[in-house]
Structure prediction request, 217 residues.
Amino acid sequence: MRLLIFGKQGAGKGTQAVRLAEHFSIPHISTGDMFRSAVREGTEFGRRAKEFMDAGELVPDSVVLGMVRERLARPDAEHGFLLDGFPRTLPQAHGLREVVGEDGLDRVIELAVPTEAVVERISGRRVCADCGATYHVTAPPRQGWGHCDQCGGSQVVQRDDDNELAVRRRLAIYERETAPLADYYADGNLLARVDGVGDPDEVFVRILTAVGGRTSS
Ligand SMILES: [Zn+2]
Prediction:
């Protein structure tokens, strides 16, 4: 099963990706992890990426695609994979098609959640500064904001990145750069648009149904 998943930040993509990869016994290839391991292991494209990052520059698509190619060539990806966080733009999607070939993907999952729902989800998020445990304004720690459930820490705060304005700015970039992937993959009959609102277990069943996997296990 060769899958790709995309969706707005805060749509619950990370959680579903982990479950999907486990369900199909395929590696979950998230862009961040791929970057870190390519740089750490000093692969050809990992070294090139590091040069750009050290210079404070954006890593060009050609280098990112090189890392994807390296990663997909590994034995664990031989019988499938789940790409998460890549491609993020149409040019990257074109590049990916060159790497994996015309029939290189079985299904592309768009996890669809309305903008207002993710704004509420992210801007209401609060994080323990000591241990990283996350809460929501609607679900505070049991003993109140001054006492983290996990570590007892007193600093449960909103991250700078999570303020509403920053969230809306990132969502606007998503609409402009990433949302067009839906039409691109719909043209190739690969797109499975899944409603990401609701209980994560229910969303997971929807995804499995959409990709044609078994829903019994
Ligand atoms: Zn804590």
